[in-house]
Design brief:
24% of the residues lie in helices and 34% in strands. With 182 residues, it is of the alpha+beta class.
């Protein structure tokens, strides 16, 4: 539920307009009296559009609209919780050819927690290349997948494409996300 509206109660194009109009932050109500700000990208990657409304997951004690961390990444959520995890926005984009681009924005509570999560091999395993997207990012290529992790303030951001040919697009989008103001 976003600001009292059920996402399924109005067309997807209205939801995209709501996302773009509200900018990066959406107030999500998990339970009465509890609000969590979740970083949402202001713009889609070039040539892509939202394929569904963003999914939002919180902690076990403060679940968000789609549930808690364990419903998002099963048992792997413990590692994120150990680093101060508060919420994650899971965003899926598609282009006209049907290719997907995934963005997961993990709110780790503090920049230090986000950096510690980025440094944890249980989250960001070895085998990466360091690349620059306005900050250091860990890039991975497991043919045909290409993905990277980087830190932006208190957020650990993961972006992924399943087509090596889109790795440059992914890098450009990461640079765009890093520059945008929350």
């Amino acid at each position: 539920m976003i600001r009292g509206y059920r996402c399924s109660s109005f067309p997807a194009f209205c939801f995209l307009g709501l996302i773009l109009a509200s900018g990066f932050l959406a107030e999500i109500t998990a339970e009465p009296g509890l609000q969590q700000e979740v970083f949402l990208p202001k713009t889609a990657p070039h040539g892509f559009a939202l394929s569904q409304p963003p999914e939002l997951y919180g902690t076990e004690s403060a679940p968000l609209g789609d549930g808690n961390i364990f419903q998002f990444i099963d048992g792997g959520g413990v590692v994120y919780l150990n680093h101060g995890f508060r919420a994650v926005a899971h965003i899926l984009y598609k282009d006209e050819a049907g290719r997907g681009l995934t963005v997961d924005v993990f709110d780790m509570g503090t920049p230090g927690n986000a950096r510690a999560a980025w440094s944890d091999e249980l989250i960001c395993p070895s085998g990466f290349s360091l690349v620059q997207v306005g900050t250091e990012a860990k890039a991975y290529h497991f043919e045909p997948d290409f993905f990277l992790y980087f830190v932006k303030g208190r957020y650990l951001i993961y972006i992924h494409v399943a087509d090596d040919n889109q790795s440059e697009l992914l890098m450009d989008y990461a640079k765009q996300l890093f520059k945008e103001e929350p």
